[in-house]
Amino acid sequence: MNNLPPSPRLDSAEAIDWHLDRLVALDPRLAAVRALTGTPEPRINPVGFPGIAKIVVGQQVSVASARAIWGRFELLDGALDPVRYLGLEEAQVRAVGFSAGKFRTLRVIAEAMVAGELDFDHLETLPAEAAVAYLVAHKGIGPWTAEVYLMFCAGHPDVFPAGDLALLKAVQSGLGLDERPTIKQMVELARLWAPHRSAAALLFWRLFAVMRDKEGILP
I need a labelling partner for 39 at 20 to 30 A (CA). Which of 30, 51, 83, 206 fits? Predict the structure, then answer.
């Protein structure tokens, strides 16, 4: 086992392998899951407004739909800048596939960023729980959105989105549980995997993909 830590960001297969080695040492039950899935690919999205926008696009839609909507959205002039996004008409954004709710969510986030009330760079200085609390204090950002942002945009090594249905299903299968864990139970289960909870989430998302032969979330 390599004792030299990689970059704190989960931005390479080597970094993920490093965390998985320690994760399996913490919970040997995960060795069989890792043997089945292999090393998950790193998934790093842009930071700041583009990153949070991509996550909002992916909420409650299929992966294929999210990719198609994002592909059209990012071509809108100014869509990826909070100041310029506020200058877009709702009809323009809705035309690429946004719901009214998602248009408003991104508008609220953009307004908070422009006002200096929401600073994504500030997250780099915070531990996971504090970073989640900071994000969810802003209207339009729920726990799942905050946790997925921290994982896939900030590359945080110790986040587990316990409210993700794919993860709950994969954990039930991977650990051989009689019932799907509740969110509260999942939070407690995941504590065993700290400080490598993000690697655990990647592992179980990959297991879900293997189980269903499809991706669990928007990459």
Answer: 51
